[in-house]
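Explain this protein:
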Amino acid sequence: MISTDNAVALEAAGLQWHPRAGDRFVVRGADMGGEVFTISEMVVEAHEYPTGTVLGFNGTTEWALDSLRQEDALWLPREDQLRELLGGTFRSLARSTDGRYQVLVEIGGQPERVFTSEEPADAYAEALLALVTAATSRVG
């Protein structure tokens, strides 16, 4: 699973979250021991209102939490979501001899770059951060 540090960095870089079933998140600033929630029509559902998106906790009796503003949640993108966001820059995911995961990408016609981490989602996240940074520097 992606680290919260990388999730925060992706959000700061401008990654937009449009909550849908299967998405995972943590509650910001709450002392919930890093509890990870998953959006599901059966438990947590995203409700769109003119004032913003609210995450509704349907039928959850063990938490004294009825709903949560999207801004109070930190999205933890899954590997498949990160890979999809890399799009055509993604080349491969491999495991190195030391057991770490390597994501190989080609960004902007430059030589291929490798991003390595203990978790595959973090290697994907670091590659995506590089892609966003490259895109931002071309625009600016």
